[in-house]
Input
Amino acid sequence: MLQLIDKKYKITIYLILLLILSTTSGKFIENKNKYLFVDKIKVDIRGLSSKENQKIINKLDNVLSQSIFNIDKQEIKKILEKHNIIEEYEIKKIYPSIININIKPTKFIARISDQHQLLVGSNGKIIKNQKYEKNLPYIFGKFKTKDFLIFKENVERSSFNFSEFKMLYFFPLNRWDIMTTDGILIKLPKENLIKSLNLAHKIISKDYLKNKNLIDLRANNQLIIK
Output
């Protein structure tokens, strides 16, 4: 009789353990499935127009067709960097199914003089935007992004700013000329740009150019005013 009771007791214990294990296993599978089969990823892009934001979302469609855990930010960066309108961006994953992208658009600082009226951003990239109507200085000549960014950096470190320029001329010898909004042409040397820009700005501000509209700084240690 005692052996029968012990056998029933053991069977009861086994059944309880089996129930606990099956419940735990079920919860594990359920939790695992929550992460493996999440809802479609939602993208929140801020900083550009709704039209530009949608263009980027469309390009990201293939990247976002997988679990957020498997998405490589480098894939998103490659797509973002193809859009010249973007100056800076920040990507954040919010688990389990949201990606936030904050974008800083580039500033338009010049316009290329051709039939397409392309704009030049402060990031040195060319942007097609025919609706932008604000006055910008025109750039003449064929230049590379690197050439423009170097020139832009020198201007920013000098006493000038781009709002004082009416026209910019780039020459194949990697040299720039500037036409100010007052109609003064400044011929700059290839080297020592900041020093030359500051000198030209000082000459203009001191009103040394009465009835004259040309400052030639191309020759070393030589200033020509006409």
Summary: The chain has two domains: 42-105, 108-225. The chain has five helices and twelve strands.
